[in-house]
Amino acid sequence: MIFVQLILYCALFTLMVKLGVGGSALNGLLFYPKPVQERVYALGLKDRQAVSRRRKRFMTAFFAVMAAALVAIIRAFLPAYWQALLFLELMNWYDGIVIDRLWVGHSAFWVIPGTEDIPFVQTWPQMLKKRGILTAVWIVGATVVAGIVTLI
User: Residue 112 gets which letter from DSSP?
Assistant: First the structure.
């Protein structure tokens, strides 16, 4: 059962990203590193304030939906903690490997015209470092989720 839930959680994550970018990589500019963003602004392809507004709207909706899904799946504190930790860690590594390295790194969709010469996918060492830091963050974050679940 938990395996199916994990697959559905990752599918929801992917759907949220796809809905967030719609039909244009430019709509996902908020996910790109600063050098790519700066080039896009310089080329006049996107407005800095519009990207900032889009980031706030997307991240608010993303965290609300993902947190609500997680709370809906799990129940009592200790089991909730371990289950939340599992889901959050899986989401962390899924994002780094499947979304960033595989989907974004191997799809022409994510190449923004005029920025082809700027690397926009993290190297493996960069990705591993970021995911390692987020692993520690989610150890604490899982306690917050488990606390919310037990209060509901």
Answer: P
Grouping H, G, I as helix, E, B as strand and the rest as coil, residue 121 is: coil
Nearest residue to 102 (alpha-carbon basis) of 136, 127, 130, 84: 127
Integer Cα distance of 143 and 122 in angstroms: 29
Residues 6+ apart with CB under 8 A from 26: 40, 45, 46, 112
> Rounded CA gap, 112 and 30, in Å?
13
pTM tops 0.85:
no
Q: Which two tokens stand for residue 112?
A: 């923004």
Task: Report d(CA 57, CA 72) in Å as an integer.
Answer: 22
The total number of structural domains that make up the chain: 1
Average pLDDT over residues 35-48: 95
